[in-house]
Amino acid sequence: MKKIEAIIRKSKFDEVKEALHSIEVNFFSYWDVTGVGNEKQGHVYRGVSYSTTDIQRRFLSVVVSEPFLERTIEALLKAAYTGNVGDGKIFVSNVEEAYRIRTKERGFESLN
Q1: Quick check: helix, strand or coil at residue 34?
Q2: What is the mean pLDDT of residues 45-62?
Q3: What residue segments make up the domains of the chain, in order of their start?
Q4: 56, HSE (Cβ side, Cα atoms, 13 Å)
Q5: Cα dist. 92→62, 64, 72, 78, 96 in Å?
Q6: Rounded to whole angstroms, how far apart are CA atoms 34 and 56?
Q7: pLDDT tens across 96-107, in order?
Q8: CATH, domain range 2-111
Q9: H-helix or E-strand containing 43?
Q10: CA–CA separation, 80 vs 109, rounded Å?
Q11: What φ, ψ does residue 78 adopt, rounded to 5°?
Q12: What is the model's pTM?
């Protein structure tokens, strides 16, 4: 099993959620987060300068089986993409074990 953590623009969340549902990834957790990015300069929009050092983002966490890993990453990459600085990051790590508390199922069965 793999844990995928993604930090995305809040404005892309609905598209990402739909993309995940379309590939049958129906359970994930998310949080609103604030981070500091690499870009040090501000932006000007309609004559108003604003700072981009503190960035509002959404953090998603999803655990998938090996067969779902690549399609989940592809769905995230496609749905979260704008082509601009600050589109986000995706991290993948191993999950040793998973348990469903209610039924005491473990492993892959606990994810369904």
Answers
A1: strand
A2: 77
A3: 2-111
A4: 5
A5: 10, 10, 11, 17, 13
A6: 5
A7: 999 999 999 999
A8: 3.30.70.120
A9: strand 43-45
A10: 29
A11: -70, -45
A12: 0.83
